[in-house]
């Protein structure tokens, strides 16, 4: 059985993290051909394919992702050791890279990361992207965590993903406070304008089902799949909106908008998605445990 060559493992780790063989070769002051040869030798010795080569792109295989998880553990500990030997102490500050779905409520995101803001030993970055880019980022270990309102299994079935519900928010009919309707839908809602989520969303499907039940025809003035845009439309259009109250919590607190009524047994669900890996930052474990307990 071949011994693990940690020099080769380090090369693999740098390539997987940076995502560009040319850049890694430049950083390590070796030729690209030599680096490529070392990587191929590592794969040959371990009898495993770590990357799928598509043109100039290198995509991690399933085995590559698992090897990367171990490499993260090994070399992150090595960096801690180097810091200790150089400075006489270990840098205990932890960093999280969080990907968020572009259409996700900013108020929910702020609420989710609030424990991090209160912790001086933690730093983090937030990156908004579409779901496919977010999942690719997880696979390439660009993100420690992804926040979305889409269950991962509805997007891509892959045993690498771990999807956990971290919150649910009841959907509500929300509108201008001065036009408050005290009757139960659909009574009192005739001839009113609406701003609604797009038809490809679960929220819109739930509202359409409610309208069909009561044979109510909504006069839709505008549609949007971005919660930030729906927030602005609900605030400025004078029309009614269907969305979780957390999206417009500031406007409700300011007396601009009011919750007319909650839709019965209808919720928007929020998920935290992680990739299976051996080394998981403790701050991420604590953050997920806290929100999962609140969601139960």
TrEMBL record:
Highest taxon of source: Bacteria
Statement: the UniProt record of this protein carries the keyword Signal: no
Family recorded in the similarity comment: Belongs to the LysR transcriptional regulatory family.
Biological source species: Shewanella aestuarii
Protein name (database record): LysR family transcriptional regulator
Alphabetically ordered keywords of this record: DNA-binding, Transcription, Transcription regulation
Molecular-function GO terms, alphabetical: DNA-binding transcription factor activity; transcription cis-regulatory region binding
Domain HTH lysR-type: 4-61
InterPro entries tied to this protein: LysR_HTH_N, LysR_subst-bd, WH-like_DNA-bd_sf, WH_DNA-bd_sf
Pfam families recorded: HTH_1, LysR_substrate
């Amino acid at each position: 059985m071949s011994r693990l060559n940690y020099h080769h493992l380090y090369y693999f780790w740098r390539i997987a993290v940076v995502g560009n063989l040319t850049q890694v070769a430049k950083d390590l002051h070796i030729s690209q051909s030599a680096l490529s040869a070392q990587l191929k030798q590592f794969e040959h010795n371990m009898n495993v394919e770590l990357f799928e080569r598509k043109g100039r792109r290198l995509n991690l295989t399933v085995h590559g992702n698992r090897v990367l998880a171990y490499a993260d553990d090994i070399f992150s500990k090595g960096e801690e050791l180097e810091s200790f030997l150089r400075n006489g102490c270990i840098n205990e500050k932890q960093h999280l890279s969080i990907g968020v779905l572009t259409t996700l409520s900013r108020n929910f995101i702020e609420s989710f990361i609030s424990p991090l803001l209160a912790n001086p030993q933690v730093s983090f970055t937030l990156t908004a992207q579409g779901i496919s880019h977010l999942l690719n980022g997880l696979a390439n270990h660009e993100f420690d965590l992804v926040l979305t309102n889409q269950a991962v299994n509805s997007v891509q079935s892959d045993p690498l993903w771990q999807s956990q519900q971290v919150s649910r928010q009841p959907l509500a009919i929300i509108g201008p406070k001065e036009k408050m309707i005290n009757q139960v839908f659909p009574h009192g809602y005739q001839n009113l304008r609406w701003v609604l989520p797009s038809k490809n969303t679960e929220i819109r499907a739930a509202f359409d089902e409610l309208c069909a039940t009561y044979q109510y025809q909504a006069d839709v003035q505008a549609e949007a799949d971005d919660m930030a845009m729906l927030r602005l439309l609900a605030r400025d259009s004078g029309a009614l909106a269907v969305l979780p109250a957390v999206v417009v919590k500031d406007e409700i607190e300011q007396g601009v908008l009011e919750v007319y009524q909650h839709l019965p047994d209808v919720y928007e669900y929020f998920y935290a998605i992680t990739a299976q890996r051996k080394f998981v930052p403790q701050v991420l474990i604590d953050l997920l445990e806290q929100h999962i307990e609140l969601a139960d």
